[in-house]
Amino acid sequence: MANWRGIFRRWEPQDIAPVVSLAALIVFFSIAAPGFFRWNTLVTAMQQGAVLAIVSAGLTFVLLAAEIDLAVGAVALWTACCCGWLFQNWATQTTEGRFVASPGFVATVIVLPLLTSLLLGTLSGFLTVQSRLPSFIISLAMMFISQGAARYITRGQAFRVPELLNYVGNRGLEHEGLTVVPYSAMLAAVIMLVGHIVLQYTRFGRYVYMTGGNRQAARLAGIPTGVIVTACLAISAVTAGIGGLVNAGRMTSVTLDQNQDLLLSALACIVLGGTSLFGGEGSMGKTLVGVATFTVLNIGLNSIRLDDFARPFLMGVILLASLLLNAILSRRQQWS
């Protein structure tokens, strides 16, 4: 298994800023919010950050390849809605209103929606490469397609999801009846670890960095940049689908108002960690730091019980300050 210290191999001096920001937030909220620095808070952070980590892991591939995927939130919604629709319409319902399903059936209603998310991502990548249009335009169209499909099959109704997803989203390893490590966080850790290994230790990962760093040079070097871009968008769609399923499991059902802020939150996490929006620079370790920073900020602001109107404003100000600090340090590193 890869050494976790290798995650930080690509870090430069300016990349310390996100870690310092994370540490400062933890210290501040530990003082400002009594009881913040407790294990229960850490468990809550892991549960809330798991979905963001899963989605951000796939989106990191896209940004490293100098592309963008605006459809991750909509694909997450579509995958969850498709799973709920299949489960509630195909499962056997008892007289008490419970849904009974075999393990094979549960696996089917989970895998089929994920295959559709893979198809959407692959189609988005194929159209981006073949049409030579910006991925932001193609993925924007995919966003509307996914949202429309979710609305069409659900008709605005809430649908239950398999108990397995509820279990993954809300349970975990326990000690004396208390959750110690949520299963969703374990799943997110596995996905991020696999993403790290792929990016740092495989030819595909090197090709992703080269494609994002200099597309023309990579093409002249014989790298199939079109295949790399398509694969990255497909990976992003699948991780978005997994994130949507886990989030639906946390909520025990799926509704159309889920995952509305998922795209912007995932982008904020990745950029907060220090990954460049222009491709070729970043890592899964940086994304992990960004997810932790965003989650701590969100939980911390809730802990100090700010007014509902003031919380988004203050969160935006802190995020903007962190991003500006990262940009200033990055420019100084380039000038030095």
Structure description:
The protein has a single domain, classed as ABC transporter involved in vitamin B12 uptake, BtuC (Orthogonal Bundle), CATH 1.10.3470. α7 (183-201) crosses α8. It has 13 helices and 6 strands. The two termini are 36 Å apart. With 336 residues, the protein is mainly alpha-helical. The longest helix has 29 residues, at 103-131. It is globular. The strands form 3 sheets. It has a two-stranded antiparallel sheet. The protein has a two-stranded antiparallel ribbon with strand order 3-6. The chain has helices at 16-32, 39-64, 72-90, 103-131, 135-154, 163-170, 183-201, 203-213, 215-220, 225-251, 262-273, 284-303, 310-335, and strands at 92-93, 99-100, 159-160, 172-175, 178-182, 253-254. The mean pLDDT is 85.
List keywords for this structure.
ABC transporter involved in vitamin B12 uptake, BtuC, 13 helices, two-stranded antiparallel sheet, globular, single chain, 336 residues, mainly alpha
What do the pLDDT scores average to? 85
Low confidence ranges: none
Bin the helical content. Answer: over 70%
Number of domains: 1
Strand content: 5-15%
CATH topology: ABC transporter involved in vitamin B12 uptake, BtuC
Radius of gyration computed on alpha carbons: 20 Å
Largest sheet: 2 strands, antiparallel
SSE sequence, one letter per element = HHHEEHHEHEEHHHHEHHH
Count of β-strands: 6
Number of helices: 13
What is the highest CATH level, the class? Mainly Alpha
- The CATH architecture designation is Orthogonal Bundle
Distance between the termini: 36 Å
> Strands of the biggest beta sheet: in what spatial order?
1-2
Look at the helices and sheets and give the structural class. mainly alpha
Q: Shape, please?
A: globular
